[in-house]
């Protein structure tokens, strides 16, 4: 143990023995007989900042300038009240020293320890605020809760309040990003998607890679992404942190946590359509999103209403699914494990995905040679009628579904989980849906299959896709302005194909999508729900890119492990003195 500094300090009217080592700051209460009592231990990596004097940051900053005092701010954990992760709060302890010289010695050593043991902390961030997302409180959340914490940690930020859709994406694709350590979005999953597309697209442009080719090994993004939740849906934040809480997310950003994340690229007709990280769903999930678009005036309630109506329509769809299985010896979607902070499966996958730092694409070059050779040797094909099918690169857990779509999915193992729900009785399908809200195994049903995969292809019976724009409400073949389209934009020599939805008043009043309830004829095809966006294609090809981006997060913390660690520290401090008495 490399001892840095030790002395007696006062907290209020109690005397403490404070010790700063290379990795921890500890202060132990000492009674009048010089016996140790309660000890508080904080990892240096979780110290947020050190200030001279008596300082308060939240709810508003106040400073009492005193010569012999200093204040330490650090991460303090508390239960979130649900089954997810732990809430992080800003802990604060004010220390009093016998002299100003000792005070200056403590602040100097603490700041030096932060620089030494927290090299990944960001110093300059580019922040995008969506003022229209969720309850339209993005500005308030950032300026009242997040900005004071960034200032305390010495982080400078350039803030952009977006005024239109895809403004953040376009900025990241075109503007100079030199000097920024990371990019932060204050918003929901839609805002995160903009940052994802902008950063991934920018990285491939600079690397001279073609995103449209699914056989290409995409270059991992050098900049981290931070998420301050402030949207209608915050699935990515929940699945990577475990709670929807702006302060918790801000503290993860400040201490420089780094969580790699797999990304799924979606292709159609030799063109990139979109990137996905949480849900790519067809059938029920696509129908619910398409129906909910007509009821945006209802707010979040539109999802409950649309889900009920689509369920009652009792639809299923024909299709052929081909998938490239992942190695079953590495992990399984039915192995009952959870991807938590420090996940062993994801850690081992990092070594497998990037065996040499100079050859990060070697895995993809070998795994996806099938795309260029059209070899079908390893692909598995299934055909039939499905209630729904979905592909996810994470558990996709949320407050309503704590276990998510696939409870054992991993954030960074280079695979996705393909869930096939075959046509079945409505009550059986309702049982499947209900199990997402409980701890019951939604895969333990005879009409449900789940596979861990590296790639997926989906197609419909010949002739049915042509009916898509005529049969799905809101899409008309008579007026070009009413149809969904794909923008192909040239950006520094590379092309980014992104599905853009063109919505008009005529669309909103078109033939209702609920054909199963109010029409005799049901639609022949559904639509794809790609992270909350409708794709205008039915036949797609999906490929999983392992650890393509990194978030300022560490995965969901295991409450039991954190609690046991704290108990072991307490036992180590308390039991030894008792044994000597």
Automatic annotation (TrEMBL):
GO CC annotation, single: membrane
SMART domains tied to this protein: DAGKc
Domain DAGKc intervals: 120-270
Single GO MF annotation: ceramide kinase activity
One record GO biological process: ceramide metabolic process
Top-level division of the source organism's lineage: Eukaryota
Ranges of Polar residues composition bias in the record: 489-504
InterPro entries found in the cross-reference section: ATP-NAD_kinase_N, CERK_C, CERK_PH, Diacylglycerol_kinase_cat_dom, Lipid_Phosphate_FormReg, NAD/diacylglycerol_kinase_sf
Region (Disordered) location: 468-504
Designated name of the protein: Ceramide kinase-like
Organism: Stegastes partitus
Species classification: Eukaryota, Metazoa, Chordata, Craniata, Vertebrata
Gene name of the encoded protein: LOC103363733
């Amino acid at each position: 143990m490399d001892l840095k500094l030790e002395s007696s300090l006062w907290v209020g009217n109690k005397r403490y023995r404070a010790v700063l080592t290379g990795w921890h700051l500890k202060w132990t209460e000492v009674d009048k007989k010089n016996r140790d009592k309660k000890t508080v231990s904080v990892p240096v990596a979780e110290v947020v900042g050190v200030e001279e004097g008596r300082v308060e940051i939240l709810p508003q900053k106040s400073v009492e300038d005193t010569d012999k005092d200093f204040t330490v701010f650090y991460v303090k954990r508390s239960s979130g009240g649900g089954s997810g992760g732990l809430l992080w709060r800003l802990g604060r302890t004010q220390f009093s020293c016998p002299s100003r010289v000792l005070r200056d010695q403590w602040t100097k050593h603490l700041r030096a320890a932060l620089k030494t043991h927290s090299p990944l902390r960001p110093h300059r961030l580019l922040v995008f605020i969506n003022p229209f997302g969720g309850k339209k409180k993005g500005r308030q959340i950032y300026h009242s809760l997040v900005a004071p914490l960034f200032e305390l940690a010495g982080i400078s930020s350039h803030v952009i309040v977006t005024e239109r859709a895809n403004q953040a994406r376009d900025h990241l694709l075109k503007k100079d990003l030199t000097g920024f350590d990371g990019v932060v979005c204050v918003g929901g999953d839609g805002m995160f998607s903009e940052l994802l597309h902008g950063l991934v697209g920018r990285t491939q442009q600079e690397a001279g890679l073609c995103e449209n080719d699914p056989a290409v090994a995409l270059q991992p993004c050098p900049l981290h992404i931070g998420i301050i939740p402030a949207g209608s849906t915050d699935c990515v934040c929940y699945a990577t942190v475990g709670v929807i809480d702006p302060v918790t997310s801000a503290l993860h950003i400040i201490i420089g946590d780094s969580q790699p994340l797999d990304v799924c690229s979606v292709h159609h007709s030799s063109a990139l359509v979109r990137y996905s990280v949480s849900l790519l769903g067809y059938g029920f999930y696509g129908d619910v999103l398409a129906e909910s678009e007509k009821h945006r005036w209802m707010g979040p309630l539109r999802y409950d209403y649309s889900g009920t109506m689509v369920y009652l329509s009792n639809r299923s769809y024909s299709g052929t699914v081909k998938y490239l299985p992942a190695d079953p010896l590495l992990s399984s979607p039915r192995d009952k494990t959870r991807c938590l902070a420090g996940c062993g499966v994801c850690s081992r996958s990092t070594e497998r995905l990037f065996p040499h730092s100079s050859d990060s694409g070697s895995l993809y070059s070998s795994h996806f040679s099938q795309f260029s050779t059209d070899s079908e040797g390893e692909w598995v094909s299934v055909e039939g009628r499905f209630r729904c099918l979905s592909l996810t690169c994470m558990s996709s857990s949320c407050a309503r579904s704590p276990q998510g779509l696939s409870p054992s999915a991993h954030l960074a193992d280079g695979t996705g989980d393909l869930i096939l729900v075959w046509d079945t009785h409505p009550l059986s399908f309702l049982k499947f849906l209900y199990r997402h809200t409980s701890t019951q195994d939604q895969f333990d049903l005879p009409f449900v299959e789940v596979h861990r995969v590296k790639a997926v292809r989906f197609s419909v019976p010949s002739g049915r896709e042509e009916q898509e724009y005529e049969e799905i409400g809101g899409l008309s073949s008579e007026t070009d302005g009413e149809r969904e389209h794909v923008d192909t934009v040239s950006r520094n020599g590379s092309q980014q194909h992104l599905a853009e939805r063109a919505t008009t008043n005529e669309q909103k009043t078109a033939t209702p999508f609920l054909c199963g309830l109010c029409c005799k004829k049901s639609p022949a095809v559904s639509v794809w729900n790609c992270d909350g966006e409708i794709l205008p294609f039915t036949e797609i090809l999906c490929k999983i890119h392992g650890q393509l981006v990194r978030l300022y997060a560490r995965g969901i913390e295991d409450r039991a492990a954190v609690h046991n660690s704290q108990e072991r520290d307490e036992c180590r401090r308390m039991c030894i003195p008792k044994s000597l008495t």
